[in-house]
Amino acid sequence: MSLLLDTHIVLWWLSDDPTLANEIKDRLDHEPDVYVSVATIWEVAVKQSIGKLQKPEDLPERIRDSGFRQLDINAEHAIAAGRLPLIHRDPFDRMLIAQAKVERLTLVTRDAEIAKYDLQILAA
């Protein structure tokens, strides 16, 4: 199964946060088809610039260089994100939802609002 990681999952994985269950961490460490969206990298850079996330300063680069496959945003993703029901209003999460749906990926998340959409979820 191919996975797309929600931003908090990537951050927990990078920091070896015990919040991330060992079975999920092990899967991320060994599954060949694990994706990180460029929306996640963008979200982290924005949150650092407005002071919601702190150090390390090179966190967006660390995510980029994490070894996960990069999922770029394309026009189909943008259209799908814009057409999603307004259950979740966060534009970064809406993009991840759209990308997961369009690319038929399982979204790894702990966000209960995302689970209200019709898509494959791996609850973390």
From TrEMBL:
Pfam families for the chain: PIN (PF01850)
Top-rank lineage group of the source organism: Bacteria
Family annotation (CDD domains): PIN_Sll0205-like
Chain ranges of the PIN domain: 4-118
Keyword Protease: no
Keyword terms: Hydrolase, Magnesium, Metal-binding, Nuclease
Name of the protein in its database record: Twitching motility protein PilT
UniProt source species: Paractinoplanes deccanensis
